[in-house]
Amino acid sequence: MLQDDTRQIIKFVSWVIGLIIVAFLVSVVIFYYAGSKSRGNDQKIAQLATSKTPISKIQGYYHLDRGTSSYAVAGTNKKGKQYYFIYLPNSKKAYLYPATKGITESKIKNKFKSTHSDATINNINLGWYKGEAAWEVAYKKQNGNLGYTLYEFKNGNDISEVDNL
Hints:
Layout: H1 2-52, E1 57-65, E2 69-76, E3 82-88, E4 93-98, H2 105-115, E5 119-129, E6 132-141, E7 146-152, E8 158-162
Antiparallel strand pairs: 1-2, 2-3, 3-4, 5-6, 6-7, 7-8
């Protein structure tokens, strides 16, 4: 009698462990496929940038979707000159900007920190907003509220700010 109870308990525990393993594997597959579009877009934008522009080495990837979906890369040419390349997949338009013709990510970061001393930067992205290249700084304030600020790429002027989300 005791052996039958022990076998049933072992069988039950084996089923529970098996179900947990299956659930874990299914969740891994779901998360992998959920991120595959983003990985594919990074590869596509890198291939476009290196084949159609002077960019030969990619230094960073960006994605911005504020009404217009856009992907961008920062990179350098063979001589070390820095460029930003923005691609709009829906319209299949692309824009190449030498870093000297706009504000770099590090300058945007410094500008943001000088005016938002109580915030921590979560992410900085380059993309397209209302017909122009723009930087977006997403942040979290000390009180836990979130926000983002958009800056013009060409001169670093504020375009828009949403605070206390």
